[in-house]
Design goal:
- The chain is an alpha+beta fold and 408 residues long.
- It folds into two domains: 201 residues, no CATH class; 178 residues, no CATH class.
- Helix content is 56%, strand content 20%.
- The protein contains 14 helices and 14 strands.
- A six-stranded mixed barrel has the order 3-4-9-6-8-7.
- Helix 2 packs antiparallel against helix 13.
- It starts with a helix and ends with a helix.
């Protein structure tokens, strides 16, 4: 076997130009595929991170009836049994974000609008989505405040400013009347337009008092220590909590529309990558075919001199393996610094395109994903493709007729 490996390696460099062309084909295929896949996955990761941080979280614990009828009557009770069920998983949980959320009428002297009132714990909400950084006027909430933050869009519709009084009227727990007057402590600019036009935030204790829902939440957002553990943690928590009272939903369930859109976009992008694979495959095959034509007489002579076909076929296969492996590794090495740079320094977008992306609640940047699976998968696909093509010389060697060749 050692002799065959040595022969294969030496044969590669008998025609340096042909070898370098083949290696370059694999090299650029792997590099382009890795960068394209990294760019696509990086964009999706950023989109998911924004949606998770500003809306659902990675997973939520809800009352079992809340999805069917999202009202205060179906809010969950933060009972001792629930806390005991969650306790074994505290090492896998970074933090939890308690929320109480329902609609109410928000009114000022100038106008009345429907609003989504969200009771938050100011400290954990800051950790969750950096809400204090979005405050453009006034100050952020404290846990003991009897005041509200109003989204910038809603403040414009209500023509209210910091220091004004906001009247809230809604339906509380078990049909009770929810009404109260709250000073506007700050104006917050939210990235998601829908939220920016109807959101009102107040401290959790004030919201529970407003809705008459003491010690109750509409959802308990759970942020895992490792986002990659979200699916497994969802399954484990679902098995641990009392399924008669509670249900655990992952972000994939809560954001099904977004996932459907991403899957459609992924399918369309994969068509482009498959076309790239086909072009590269024909390029590699063309090089291998020219190699066979050039060396046809050589192979016929070696077989005539007594070299076994299987050994000659093994030498040709090893040549293809060396070329494919070298090109795949070189392509991955070239792509690594590019992906690493744009992962830590995303491409910023400017102008109208940036404004449009901001309106949809996403950061105007184009990041790359540094997931190691991208490097392994793309390099492996191109490598296997090149190896399969490398079996063509093996087939031709076993089908070669040396007598006919010598008579020509």
């Amino acid at each position: 076997m050692k002799i065959l490996v040595t022969l294969a390696w030496r044969n590669l460099w008998r025609s340096k130009r042909r070898t370098m062309i083949t290696i370059a084909s694999v090299f650029f295929a792997v590099a382009l595929a890795i960068n394209a896949q990294s760019f696509q996955q990086g964009s999706y990761e950023l989109m998911i991170d924004n949606m998770v941080r500003f809306s659902t979280g990675y997973l939520q614990i809800q009352d079992v009836l809340y999805e069917e009828e999202p009202s205060m009557d179906n809010s969950l009770l933060v009972s001792d049994s629930l806390l005991i069920s969650v306790r074994p998983f505290l090492k896998r949980i970074a933090y939890t974000v308690p929320r109480i959320q329902s609609f109410a009428l928000a009114s000022t002297e100038a106008a009345t609008r429907g609003a989504m009132v969200t009771g938050i714990d100011p400290e954990t909400e800051n950790r969750f989505n950096s809400l204090p950084e979005q405050v453009v006027e006034g100050r952020y909430l404290a846990a003991s405040d009897h005041a509200v933050l109003v989204a910038e869009g809603l403040a414009g519709l209500l023509k209210t400013r910091v220091g004004d009084t906001l009247v809230l009227i809604g339906q509380g727990y078990q049909g009770s009347m929810a009404a109260g007057k709250y000073p506007v402590k700050g104006i917050v600019r939210l990235r998601i337009p829908e939220l920016n036009n109807n959101a009102v935030y107040m401290p959790l204790s004030a919201a529970q008092d407003f809705y008459g829902a003491e010690n109750r939440l509409t959802s308990l957002i759970v942020m895992p220590a490792d986002p990659g553990d979200a699916d497994r943690l969802t399954e484990d928590l679902s098995a641990a909590v009392d399924s008669n009272w509670y249900v655990v939903r992952s972000w994939k369930y809560l954001l099904q529309d977004l996932l459907s859109l991403m899957e459609f976009d992924t399918a369309s992008n994969m068509v482009i990558i498959y076309i790239l694979y086909i072009v590269i495959a024909f390029g590699i095959f063309g090089t291998i075919l020219s190699m066979m034509i050039e060396r046809n007489a050589e192979f016929a002579m070696l077989i005539s001199l007594g070299m076994k076909r299987r050994r000659l076929a093994m030498v040709c296969l090893l040549e293809s393996l060396f070329i494919s492996f070298t090109g795949a590794i070189a392509g991955a090495v070239l792509a690594l610094p590019v992906v690493a740079w744009y992962h830590h320094h995303p491409i910023p977008l400017k102008g109208d395109l940036a404004e449009m992306i901001l309106q949809y609640g996403f950061e105007p940047v184009l990041p790359f994903s540094a997931d190691p699976k991208i490097f392994l998968t793309q390099a492996l696909i191109v490598f296997v493709m090149a190896v399969i093509i490398g079996f063509y010389p093996v087939y031709k060697i076993f089908r070669m007729k040396t007598v006919e060749r010598s008579n020509r």
